[in-house]
Amino acid sequence: MRKLKLQMQMTINGYVAGPNGENDWMTWNPDDEFLGFLNSLIDSSDTMLLGRKLATGGFINHWEDTAEKNPSHPFAKKIVDIPKVVFSKTLAQSTWNNTTLAKGNLAEEIAQLKSQSGKDILVFGGAGFVSSLIKEGLIDEYHLIINPTAMGNGMTIFNSLDGIQKFTPIDAKLYPGGKTVLSYKPKND
What we know:
Dihydrofolate Reductase, subunit A; 5 helices; 8 strands; globular
């Protein structure tokens, strides 16, 4: 069965976006090792999941524009080429290339995607969508990219938990450009 992997950028104090979804807090000083990590996550997956707010907020358009203007970008073409599923209760149809909508029950839709043959499934966000996945216990691996920044207020992803969720560490790595990736899988005991 395919795994659902989360890749999420966050501050050292756990925010994944500013109060209004801003991402100006992210640091971008990519080094070859960090780009290799990002590429390995994308390469191990053949489907990407997004929430409606992230998709309509410009994520897909940004990467399509980047791939068109800068074909040598380290992973823009990969993000454009990977089939995407946008979860939405309000959109009537997808307006993006290589993208379908999922409008049903979240857990049922994810179970159906996981049961298909293929590589793993990568989740990019946004905050509300990821919070829903966490609340339902649907994420198999967490790859949290910690930026060397902090802010006083913003969006989080773990606030939907009703209790304590424990994790088993998979890996931890500090990259030369300043980001740290903490990788975990949920402990189900």
